């Protein structure tokens, strides 16, 4: 019943990948196993995304009720909330109160961006190394301790509860950051164009700017003329002023991804390191950087490496090219 309603609502995961929620629930429900798991991913490690913290702080009971619906729908299941370590001390009491006697474990995520990737968090809960797993198999078939596992984001569980209550309004939570006048989390329709998001929140810049939209620091780069599309991904919108130093932002991204790479696969381990080295030079070899980005995007093992290439490719083609 709830799965049909999730499908009809068109709800897609709000963690970034945007997989249809109803289909994911159905896959876990129909999988044959003696035990199943539900995980609420509250790791929120991307710089520029803060909506899950906002939701957990403001609506902890609704999120827990969303998880409770999953516990009821999926036989022989128990749940985890995989919580960002910075959020843990601020939310522990509130969440434990909302959990009460439900079979939900509050699990403190270790530090590190990669720890929030869904297969890495499975390894972490199992006490293994903080490394992503090869997919397939997907967690819906072989997740925690090889059992079918439903992994959804905080906002997704919040919206599941709204759907169950007949109160879903096809809206979402956007994190606005960077050079905006009013930073913060805003609740607006899910398909609203970025241009309207900026206008309706009083954040349309009065300077020459570009936007990084969707997945925090891995988000897509858009010029101010390309904002007739929704933010997508995890719903972040970061404003950058077109700087007189176009290398500054590239170096900032390169350092972040190099430091956060887990080192398991060569394209990302070597690629992010070499990218960081190459971009230290003022007149960097753009052909070599393009090759590194191609390999990073096409052959990295997990979304961190593949996503790392996205902002560089957009910036080099749309912003850097115009300045140089
Ligand atoms: S893409 Fe990067 S973060 Fe992901 S497995 Fe490879 S080295 Fe690790």
Helix content: 40-55%
Number of strands: 9
Task: Please count the helical segments.
Answer: 12
CATH superfamily of the largest domain: NADH-ubiquinone oxidoreductase 51kDa subunit
- In the predicted model, the low-confidence regions spanning at least 5 consecutive residues are none
Shape: globular
List cofactors, ions and other ligands: iron/sulfur cluster
The main β sheet shows up as: 5 strands, mixed
Instruction: State the strand order across the main sheet.
Output: 6-5-9-7-8
Question: How many structural domains are formed by the residues?
Answer: 3
**Strand-residue proportion:** 15-25%
CATH-derived topology of the largest domain:
Rossmann fold
H-E string: HHEHHEHEHEHEEHEEEHHHH
Distance between the termini: 57 Å
Describe this structure in words.
- This protein has 324 residues and is an alpha/beta fold.
- It has helices at residues 2-9, 21-30, 51-58, 60-73, 88-99, 118-125, 154-164, 194-200, 246-260, 266-278, 286-299, 303-323, and strands at 36-42, 77-83, 104-108, 149-153, 171-178, 184-189, 209-214, 220-223, 236-241.
- The protein has three domains: 2-164, NADH-ubiquinone oxidoreductase 51kDa subunit (Rossmann fold), CATH 3.40.50.11540; 171-241, Roll (Ubiquitin-like (UB roll)); 246-323, NADH-ubiquinone oxidoreductase 51kDa subunit, iron-sulphur binding domain (de novo design (two linked rop proteins), Up-down Bundle), CATH 1.20.1440.230.
- It is built from twelve helices and nine strands.
- Helix 9 (246-260) packs antiparallel against helix 10 and helix 10 (266-278) packs antiparallel against helix 11 (286-299).
- It is globular.
- Iron/sulfur cluster (SF4) binds next to helix 10 and helix 12.
């Amino acid at each position: 019943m709830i799965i049909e309603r999730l499908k009809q609502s068109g709800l897609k995961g709000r963690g970034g990948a945007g997989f249809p929620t109803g289909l994911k629930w159905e896959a876990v429900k129909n999988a044959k196993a003696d035990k199943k798991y539900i995980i609420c991913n509250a790791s929120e490690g991307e710089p520029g995304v803060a909506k899950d913290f906002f939701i957990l702080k403001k609506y902890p009971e609704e999120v827990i009720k969303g998880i409770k619906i999953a516990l009821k729908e999926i036989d022989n299941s128990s749940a985890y909330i995989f919580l960002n370590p910075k959020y843990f001390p601020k939310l522990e009491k509130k969440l434990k109160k909302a959990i009460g006697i439900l079979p939900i474990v509050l699990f403190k995520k270790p530090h590190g961006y990669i720890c929030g990737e869904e297969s890495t968090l499975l390894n972490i809960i199992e006490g293994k190394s903080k490394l992503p797993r090869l997919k397939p198999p997907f967690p819906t078939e072989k997740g925690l301790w090889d059992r079918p596992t439903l992994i959804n984001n905080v906002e997704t569980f919040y919206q599941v509860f709204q759907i169950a209550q007949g109160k879903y309004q096809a809206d979402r939570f956007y994190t606005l950051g960077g050079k905006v006048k009013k930073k913060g989390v805003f609740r607006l329709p899910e398909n609203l164009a970025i241009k309207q998001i900026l206008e309706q929140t009083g954040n349309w810049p009065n300077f020459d700017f570009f936007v990084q939209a969707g997945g925090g620091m891995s988000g897509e780069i858009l010029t101010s003329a390309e904002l007739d599309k929704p933010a997508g991904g995890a719903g972040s919108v970061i404003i950058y002023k077109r700087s007189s130093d176009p290398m500054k932002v590239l170096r900032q991204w390169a350092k972040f991804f190099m430091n956060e790479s887990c080192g398991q696969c060569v394209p990302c381990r070597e690629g992010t390191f070499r990218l960081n080295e190459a971009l230290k030079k003022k007149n960097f070899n753009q052909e070599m950087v393009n090759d590194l980005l191609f390999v990073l995007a096409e052959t990295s093992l997990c979304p961190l490496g593949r996503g790392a290439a996205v902002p560089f490719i957009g910036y080099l083609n749309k912003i850097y090219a115009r300045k140089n």
